[in-house]
Amino acid sequence: MEKKEYYIAGIHPVTEAIESNRNIDKVMFKQGLEGPQFRALLEKLQTKGIPVQFVPIERLNRISRANHQGVIAFIPQVDYFSLEDVVSFAAKKAEEPLILILDGVSDVRNFGAIARSAECAGAHGIIVPAKGSANINADAIKTSAGALLRIPVCKVSNVREAIFYLKQSGYTLFATTEKAEETIYNASFKGPCAIIMGSEDKGISKSAEELSDARVKIPMAGKISSLNVSAAATVVMFEVLRQRNA
Fold first, then answer.
1. CATH superfamily, domain at 7-74
2. How many Å apart are CA 114 and CA 105, to the nearest integer?
3. What is the pTM of this model?
4. 165-195 pLDDT, tens digit each
């Protein structure tokens, strides 16, 4: 569902949004902000794992001319799904489930391009961490050609916990990394599976890689050692689709 409002300004409105469990991407505070209301709000944000950023007041003033009181919360343009709902949604389809985990993909255009490929490849959901991942904004939605309005996206506070939940739900976890020995063309993607893609600069986190059931790579023939993450995700997902349609 699209939103018409993309941020909330002011300590009390932001606090009310948190207490009503509204989805929030991140919160910006004015540098040097103090006081009991600020500390109470900061504690609520930390408890829920919502990213926080301290910025000069000039930046907040450029975003909103309202009386923001040094606090602006950014809300997603689409509603996020819970992990349980994504898995339940996939299970109800008359297809083998495929879920994509983006571990640290922070560029919104890469995120949008990946979502477009995921929707075209028949993926049933995308999982992203709350910290360090791209937000669903206008650029991401535009790049996805609207796919982000159709494919369920889940934001989790901890990727490790999401991996454990998927394993308990019968999924095989594949970590895509150039350090793998097995290629995607030798791996079997039959049955429920989740593909983990990492950021371009750091790759998949060590903990996510260690928890995966298998490590796979895309074979390369050129001198450049890796693909852009959106291109790599597309190659992997369409190999999954090819195997399942074979």
1. Ribosomal protein L30/S12 (3.30.1330.30)
2. 10
3. 0.77
4. 999 999 999 999 988 999 999 999 999 999 9
